[in-house]
Structures are given as structure tokens and as C-alpha cells.
């Protein structure tokens, strides 16, 4: 079936941002990518036989493989068993820029849909923690499902919260076993091992809380909703007052997160598959959802500000969007640097070997289907200096 031509308003939008319109046709040949769960390397031939496809190793990104865009993996045993998961190579590159190492306390401020979160947990190893935050409960629940499927949630906790105001500290002391009568009941409420089978009273209380939120009856100061925590996430044995500790700016400097990813909400115009959906949705909705980029500019800047606020001195933050617009990328970076004397834009050394190009600001990166054979993605790395 022949695709409908791109509307004039969108072509003008692309021209204003220096974007080649042909990337929206190049996606037909852009490969899909998957990450092989560490420890499954010996089963590569078996996986290839199962999906009836030769996987091509991505030489510039460890543990990543490419496959033709028409090959489906969702029903394969290796996918269902959690040995492989789909994640675009550009997204994997953004996570790798953080240089996550064992012992780090990592914050993913816009965690859904969860592939990058899984990769973070993979890289973390057997010490440290990952905190995932997202404002949409149903999307964060999908992250929880992924973590459980791939057995990667041991050191992770997930909070339904607004990323622009989230303020909880990482749990830096390993949790110890503490006796308690109930995980959520009694005078001294303490968290026991997480289970999806919660008591009826607790389920009823949670349902009421969600209903109140939907009616906007809950104060904005209410604690974020914890919907998952792993056995070694530092939550077990804590009381609620111990978990919901917010940090002052002084405390953040030495007790904040070591690494922060702000993969910010944007207009998704760098996701070619997303733009192609407008052929079915109708191009009229494109104006509101994509061309009026200003509607997300304020949000992305607020997310970046808060993510950086929660970063400890000496820590690293990666800001990324799947938009190709200057307004949501370079303009945000420039404004943020003007506001924050303690923020320093860092060179991404490994990018010398990557199939990407420089952004309009030195030290920033852009991936796109034509240059990179990936989805579109903008990446910038910051460090936090002592002031």
C-alpha cells in the first residue's frame, strides 16, 4: 500500500529544524535491535534458529544485535523466557553514556516504557540501586512487568510520581531484616518482601487513593506511590517515614543520585514509526501533537532541572529526547546551562566510534535513521560541579 505524502505543514516544520524528510521513508530499511541478556551468549545459535534469523552483532555497542524490521520476536521462547528484549541501539547508547557501575545509585526520571530501565539494572550488577519514576501508573506497571519477566528488579524500586517534583533520596544503607507485624498495617508500618498478592484491605485502600487522584482530590504534597521494590532495593524493613525522606539541596550534594537519566517527554518526532501512525490517526492531529512543540518545552526543562537537582556533586546526568527539534534539544540545553553554574556539558568520548553526528551545540549527539540506522535521538551529558 502506497504511503500518503507528508503534509506541507510538517515539511515546513522539518525544514525549520534542518531535518531531512527522507528519514521518514528510510525507516522501512532501518533494522530493529535487541539486547541479549548477559549470560545468554552461549545460546545465541539456538535463539537464531528459533526466530529463523541471523542476528548481526552491533560492533559499536556491547550486547546489542540487529535484525530485519519484519522479523518478530514477541512469540519466541527466548523472548518469553527473558533472554532477549527489544531496545533501539540509540536508546542503548544513551544509557551507556551514564557509565553505570556496581554500587551506583541510579535515577530514571521518566522510566516508561522500561527497556532502558532494564538495561540499567543489567549494568548495575549486585550492588547499588535503580529508582524508576513515571507519572503514568499503567505505563510504570508495564515497567514492573518487564523487570519481573527478565529477573532484573532485585535492586530496583518504582514510584508513580511527577518527575518535575520527585524528591526522594536513594536508599544508601543496605536493608536488614526487621520483624514487623504487617507490611502496610499497624502502628509501625514497615515494608516486607514485595508481592503482587496484596491483602484485600490494602488493595481497597490503594484503589480509593487512585480514584481520589483521578478526581484531583489528593494534595500535590502526597507521597509518591510505590508500586514495586526488589529484595535488595533497600526498601525491605524500612518504615514509611524512613522511605519517604526528601533531600535538601545541601544533602543532595553528598547523598543524591550518582547517575540520572532524563529521557524527557517530547513530541516524539524522531520516532519515525510514531509519525507514520498519523497516516491512520489523521494528519490534522499532527499540529497539536507534534508541530506545537512549545507545549512540551516547559515540561522537558522542568524535568531536566529536577533531575539535576537530585544529582550528587561529581555525578553524571544524561538528557535525551526522541525529538529532532532544536527547541526541545539544543535550546533546552543552552537555557539550562545559563541557569546552572554547577552544570558542565561533558564530551561523550565513546561517540567517536558511533554512527551519529554532532548536535548544533558541541559535545551533544544526534542519531537518526539515515546517519545511524536507528530511531532519532538527541543526547547530552552533564556533570555536577561543586559550587
What does this structure look like?
It is globular and about 60 Å long. 40% of the residues are buried. It folds into 2 domains: 8-30 and 89-171 and 222-384, Vaccinia Virus protein VP39 (Rossmann fold), CATH 3.40.50; 31-86, Alpha-Beta Plaits (2-Layer Sandwich), CATH 3.30.70. With 387 residues, it is an alpha/beta fold. Helix 7 (137-149) links the parallel strand 6 (129-134) and strand 7 (156-160). It has 16 helices and 14 strands. Keywords: Methyltransferase, RNA-binding, S-adenosyl-L-methionine, Transferase.
Tags for this model:
Alpha-Beta Plaits; 4-stranded antiparallel β-sheet; 387 residues; Rossmann fold; alpha/beta
Quantity of strands, as a count: 14
Order of helices and strands: HHEHEEHEHEHEHEHEHHEHHHHEHEEEHE
Average pLDDT metric: 84
Runs in which pLDDT lies below 50 for 5 or more consecutive residues are 173-186, 214-220
Oligomeric form: single chain
The CATH first-level class of the largest domain comes to Alpha Beta
- Work out the count of structural domains: 2
Helix content: 25-40%
Known CATH architecture of the largest domain: 3-Layer(aba) Sandwich
Class per helix and strand makeup: alpha/beta
CATH superfamily of the largest domain: Vaccinia Virus protein VP39
State the helix count. 16
Shape by Cα distribution = globular
CATH fold topology of the largest domain: Rossmann fold
Instruction: Give the strand content.
Output: 15-25%
If you compute it from the alpha carbons, what radius of gyration comes out, rounded to the nearest whole angstrom? 21 Å
Largest sheet features: 10 strands, mixed
Give the N-to-C terminal Cα separation: 59 Å
Amino acid at each position: 500500500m502506497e504511503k500518503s505524502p507528508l503534509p506541507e505543514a510538517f515539511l515546513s516544520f522539518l525544514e525549520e529544524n534542518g531535518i531531512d524528510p527522507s528519514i521518514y521513508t528510510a525507516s522501512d530499511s532501518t533494522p530493529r535491535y535487541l539486547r541479549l541478556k548477559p549470560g545468554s551468549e552461549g545460546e545465541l545459535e539456538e535463539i537464531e534458529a528459533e526466530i529463523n534469523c541471523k542476528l548481526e552483532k552491533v560492533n559499536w555497542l556491547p550486547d546489542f544485535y540487529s535484525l530485519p524490521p519484519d522479523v518478530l520476536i514477541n512469540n519466541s521462547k527466548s523472548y518469553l523466557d527473558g533472554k532477549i528484549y527489544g531496545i533501539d541501539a540509540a536508546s542503548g547508547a544513551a544509557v551507556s553514556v551514564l557509565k553505570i557501575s556496581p554500587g551506583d545509585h541510579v535515577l530514571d526520571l521518566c522510566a516508561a516504557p522500561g527497556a532502558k530501565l532494564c538495561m540499567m539494572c543489567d549494568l548495575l550488577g549486585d550492588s547499588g540501586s535503580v529508582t524508576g519514576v513515571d507519572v503514568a501508573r499503567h505505563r510504570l506497571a508495564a515497567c514492573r512487568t518487564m523487570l519481573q519477566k527478565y529477573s532484573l528488579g532485585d535492586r530496583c524500586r518504582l514510584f508513580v510520581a511527577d518527575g518535575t517534583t520527585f524528591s526522594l533520596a536513594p536508599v544508601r544503607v543496605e536493608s536488614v531484616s526487621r520483624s514487623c507485624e504487617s507490611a502496610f498495617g499497624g502502628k509501625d508500618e514497615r515494608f516486607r518482601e514485595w508481592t503482587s498478592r496484596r491483602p484485600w484491605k490494602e488493595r481497597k485502600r490503594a484503589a480509593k487513593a487512585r480514584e481520589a487522584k483521578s478526581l484531583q482530590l489528593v494534595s500535590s504534597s502526597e507521597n509518591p506511590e510505590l508500586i514495586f521494590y526488589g529484595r535488595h532495593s533497600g526498601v525491605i524493613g524500612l518504615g514509611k517515614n524512613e522511605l519517604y525522606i526528601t533531600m535538601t539541596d545541601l544533602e543532595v550534594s553528598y547523598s543524591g543520585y550518582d547517575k540520572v537519566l532524563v529521557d524527557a517527554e517530547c513530541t516524539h518526532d524522531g520516532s519515525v514509526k510514531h509519525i507514520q501512525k498519523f497516516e491512520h490517526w489523521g494528519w490534522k492531529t499532527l499540529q497539536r501533537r507534534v508541530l506545537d512543540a512549545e507545549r512540551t518545552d516547559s515540561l522537558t526543562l522542568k524535568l531536566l532541572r529536577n533531575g539535576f537537582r537530585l544529582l550528587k556533586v561529581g555525578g553524571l546526568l544524561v538528557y535525551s529526547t526522541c525529538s529532532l527539534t532544536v527547541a526541545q534539544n539544543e535550546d533546552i540545553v543552552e537555557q539550562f546551562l545559563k541557569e546552572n553554574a554547577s552544570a558542565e556539558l561533558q564530551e561523550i568520548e565513546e561517540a567517536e566510534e558511533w554512527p551519529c553526528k554532532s548536535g548544533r551545540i558541541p559535545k551533544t549527539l544526534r542519531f537518526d535513521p539515515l546517519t545511524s540506522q536507528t530511531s532519532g535521538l538527541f543526547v547530552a551529558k552533564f556533570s555536577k560541579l561543586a559550587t
